[in-house]
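Handout for the seminar on molecular recognition.
Each group receives one record of this type.
Step one: identify the two inputs.
Step two: read the structure output and locate the region that could contact flavin mononucleotide.
Step three: write two sentences on what you found, then compare them with the reference statements printed after the record.
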Amino acid sequence: MGAPTTVTVVSSSFADFQHEIYLGGLSGAVPELPMTAAGLERRAEEVLERDAFAYVAGSASSERTAAANRSAFDRYRLLPRMLRGATAPGARDLSVEVLGTRLAAPVLTAPIGVLELLHKGGEVIAAAATKELGIGSVQSTAASSTIEEVGAAAGEWWYQLYWPADDDLARSFVRRAERAGAKAIVVTVDTPSLGWRPRDLELAHLPFLHGKGIANYLSDPVFRAKLAAPPEASADAMRAAILAWAGLFGNHALRPADLAHLREWTELPIAVKGILHPDDARQVVDAGADAVVVSNHGGRQLDGAVAALDALPTIVATVGDRADVLFDSGIRTGSDMLIALALGAKAVLYGRPWVYGLGIAGHAGVRHALRLLLADFETAMGLAGCANLAAVQRSLVVTAR
Ligand SMILES: Cc1cc2nc3c(=O)[nH]c(=O)nc-3n(C[C@H](O)[C@H](O)[C@H](O)COP(=O)(O)O)c2cc1C
């Protein structure tokens, strides 16, 4: 056999990632980065500082909810349809509109705090990677970059609000996000205080106390007005600012009715993240939420809590006719996405794997991790016989035996 001639790739899609890799193989190239989420985690453990890896990989207490998030997917199997042409080049349309945001595929990066632990400017890098791929990102309040820096780099993005124990500060965050171009506000309600996280405890490592992940507070006029001296004035002033942050981070008084304030502060759609109980879903939708994100924070908050996937069908049945339901916690593959969508999720949030990618290889690593998921998802759609998301119905999944 002679040397291979030029091969033309006829379609341009996420799934073409595999052609790119196999074509590279013709000249002896193999991917430098792992091809699975588990591989990314293993590589991250090898290359990252111990405390950074522990912060990302760790979950609460026995970590059994984190494990359950994964094993819940094993209770479902896909029942694919054949002879539908959905694998043909260009046959698939993965795009979706959710909360008024148009996405090339039904996925947004989950809000992940303190990305400076993984890479300087991590939020901006990750936001740029999602923009290139046409998917969305949810940007954390607990970020190492400011809302304005993130907004300048991101394409379609939503702002995740940790509602502080001060409504003026909460309103200031929301207004800043709106001005910076956020398309929705995602209120995370499962973290009024931090979960019990042994991996971080063993290293006595809480990044916020080192001044990391609090850039949005330090840059906020309402927060700064509470300080006797600007945080950058001296080490003592920074310590005082960190203490002020600690006093304001958790809001134990927050109730569903408070969403009415948020409604007054912004016209953006509102999603509530961290919902597992159908009654909570009903209450927040009654109070004005446009969407709920079924999530247990990747098992980092209440250990022993139900797997997010197990909570999804009931919540879809309870509020799915009047609110969008998104899914988060445990997504690792394209088939995971298909299962969550078939169970009624409108879109999913993707968490740890791209964070490992960021830590391993910066922008290239995030892009790689996102492309893994997107290519796998598009391939799975085709093989399941789904040309678009309307074809992803409840009948696509059966209970595993
Ligand atoms: C390192 C780390 C930081 C996180 N920071 C936030 C945050 O600032 N705000 C938030 O709403 N959720 C945060 N989460 C939770 C994620 O948004 C998401 O719910 C979780 O990662 C989903 O679990 P999975 O990554 O195992 O799929 C964080 C998760 C991790 C791993």
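Reference statements: The first strand starts at residue 76 and ends at 78. The chain has one domain: 16-399.
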